[in-house]
Write a structure and sequence with these properties.
The complex is a heterodimer.
Chain A: E1 4-7, H1 8-18, E2 23-26, H2 33-45, E3 49-52, H3 56-67, E4 73-77, H4 79-84, H5 86-95, E5 99-105, H6 121-125, E6 136-138, H7 143-159, E7 163-169, H8 170-174, E8 176-179, H9 214-234, E9 238-241, E10 248-251, H10 254-269, E11 274-279, E12 281-283, H11 287-293, E13 299-304, H12 309-318, E14 324-328, H13 337-349, H14 358-368
Helix pairs in contact in A: 1-2, 1-7, 3-5, 10-13, 11-12
Chain B: E1 2-10, H1 15-28, E2 32-37, H2 41-45, E3 47-55, E4 69-72, H3 75-81, E5 90-94, E6 108-112, H4 114-121, H5 127-138, H6 144-154, H7 163-180
Parallel strand pairs in B: 1-4, 4-5, 5-6
Antiparallel strand pairs in B: 1-3, 2-3
Helix pairs in contact in B: 1-6, 4-5, 4-7, 5-7, 6-7
Classes of the chains: A alpha/beta, B alpha/beta.
């Protein structure tokens, strides 16, 4: 397959088409608009469903309905729009139907701005909507990786009857890179024993997220948890760079992760033995692998475009075995690699203690500058 | 090996397109490349910029603090980005829209009347391509032939007739830069 130059948002949209998405419902918001715009002509061209809904709550409820048929369905939005969808997402999780969500994160909270941010990590990974559920979240760092993960996202959503989110930020949505797109897959419509796909000649199926009988609701919660535990065992994804002889390790996901790659190369040019660990599945988070890396790392540097949301997951894995340092930029600021290089140098000079609070120390540094 | 090019100007001067031309050419010769635009509110207000990173391996950051190559198509962009050019780097200034010289002496630069040269080459809208030619004369990250092939391969059909003029603009830009560049001291 030839490499072609694609804009991130459009590449994701085409990759979804090739992964067999049958229905898309969405509402415009920058910096995600091109997903919707692209699908508005591409989906009808293929005889598939595209609806620009009147709002995000309407869009997610259309997704809910379509997901109940067992078809591959998706929506996409950006931070404030994702917040508006949370009620529907919780209902989808509670009904145990599969869907793919794309969040092209922007600066927040509130209306914020349209610049790249990673401020939705907690919302996306830890639930967002009400109730006990655990969406699968994949965080690509390049357009090729995003495109490669689109078919995976649909497979995981359908395998675990769960929401699978592709979590990127405005920079990946807006930039262009050469990509090799996946082959066009035929539309797959599995005969699920739960789907509402027309009951003629069989017993009717009923899908709902309402369980007024409390013990039944507990059973449903355990069933949801059981599938999540399975996903947690099987669906860990990450990428490692220069770790073989690394004495110091940076951890970052998505855009912060790829910026860290430049920083690692620059620091290595100065003779510093530093490597990069980039989680791709941020939920389930690769706790075990980070735990293993504690044996090798003298200390960790966690970098994010937020106040240290993934940092908490790293700390769960590290459990004060080695010092952890944190560096974050907020509100839509994209860090430069040089900032991370300085952080690496500072970390080596003053490694701190394993029991230090990295988020607190970072905050003190931020307000002092 | 990695090279970064930063392009800035008013909306409509074709800085985004010039960056994309470089990106396509880099992709076609098998390089890794990223093109990232400014897509914020400033895009609606007038100034536009993009960064192109060309490399032999997986690209990390799509942005750089001190690019080794900068094209500025107007005065506000010169004022803002002249200080960011990496020492020893290259700066291309569209003198058609700028009424001052470059003040730094640690970079190689050329002040080139892109609008007039583009008009002589057949269309004033090709100022961006003139500037691209000038850049490649001073920064051999791609050849003029690479860019010519990329234009040929990726220009939409309805614009194909503009190809010879664009190639002419590219060459004239390169020739001008070769003759008039001031080398870093």
């Amino acid at each position: 397959m030839a490499r072609e130059m694609w804009k991130g948002n459009e590449a994701i949209a085409e990759a979804a088409v090739r992964a067999g998405v049958e229905a898309y419902f969405g509402y415009p918001i920058t910096p995600q608009n091109e997903v919707l715009e692209y699908l508005s002509h591409r989906m009808p061209e293929l005889g598939r469903a595209f609806v620009q809904a009147e709002s995000e709550p309407a869009a997610i409820n259309m997704v809910y309905g379509a997901a109940c048929t067992g078809a591959r369905v998706m929506t996409s939005s950006s931070s404030p729009g994702i917040s508006l969808m949370q009620e529907g997402l919780s209902y989808i999780a509670g009904t145990e139907v599969p869907m793919v969500l794309v969040n092209v994160m922007r600066g927040g909270p509130g209306l914020g701005n349209i610049a790249p941010s990673q401020g939705d990590y907690n919302q996306i990974c830890k639930g967002g909507g009400h109730g006990d559920y655990h969406p699968i979240v994949l965080a690509p760092a390049s357009i090729q990786e995003a495109v490669d993960l689109m078919p995976v996202a649909f497979e995981l959503a359908h395998k675990y009857l769960n929401i699978c989110t592709i979590l990127i930020d405005g920079s990946i949505g807006q930039m262009m890179e050469p990509v090799t797109l996946p082959e066009m897959q035929p539309v797959i419509r599995k005969e699920y024993d739960w789907a509402v796909s027309g009951a003629k000649g069989r017993k009717r199926h009923l899908l709902s997220s309402i369980y007024l009988d409390v013990p039944t609701e507990e059973k449903v919660n355990l069933r949801i948890l059981g599938r999540w535990r399975e996903a947690r065992e099987n669906e860990i994804r990450f990428k490692e760079y220069y770790l073989d002889d690394a004495e110091y390790i940076i951890i970052g996901f998505g855009t912060a992760g790829r910026i860290a790659l430049s920083a690692v190369r620059a620091a290595r040019a100065q003779g510093i033995k530093v490597g990069l660990f980039r989680p791709i599945s941020v939920n389930p988070f690769p706790y075990k692998r980070v735990e293993e890396l504690c044996k090798q790392a003298q200390s960790f540097l966690v970098v994010e475009m937020n106040t240290g949301q993934m940092l908490k997951d790293v700390q769960v894995a590290v459990r004060n075995r080695v010092p952890v340092r944190f560096y974050g930029r907020l509100g839509g600021v994209m860090p430069f690699p040089d900032e991370f290089v300085t952080e690496i140098q500072e970390m080596i000079k003053n490694p701190g203690k394993p029991e230090d609070d990295p988020a607190d120390l970072w905050y003190q540094r931020m307000i002092a500058r | 090996m990695q090279t970064e090019v930063f392009l800035a100007g008013f909306g409509g001067q074709g800085v985004m397109f010039a960056g994309q031309v470089l990106s396509y050419a880099a992709m076609d010769i098998g390089k890794e490349v990223t093109w990232i635009p400014s897509y914020g509110p400033e895009m609606r207000g007038g100034t536009a910029n993009c960064t192109v990173v060309i490399a032999d391996e997986e690209i990390g950051s799509p942005l750089v603090q001190d690019p080794p190559a900068v094209i500025v198509m107007n005065l506000p962009s010169l004022d803002k980005y002249e200080p960011t050019v990496k020492p020893g780097g290259v700066l291309i200034v569209n003198s058609s829209m700028v009424d001052r010289d470059v003040t730094r002496s640690d970079i190689t630069w050329v002040s080139i009347p892109c609008n007039e040269i583009a008009e002589e080459a057949g269309d004033k809208r090709m100022a961006n391509i003139v500037a691209t030619g000038a850049l490649l004369a001073l920064l051999p990250v791609l050849t003029l032939e690479d860019v010519e092939s990329a234009l040929k391969a990726h220009m939409p059909g309805r614009h194909k007739h503009l190809l010879p003029k664009n190639v002419e603009a590219l060459k004239r830009g390169a020739e001008y830069a070769k003759k008039n560049a001031r080398k870093a001291k």
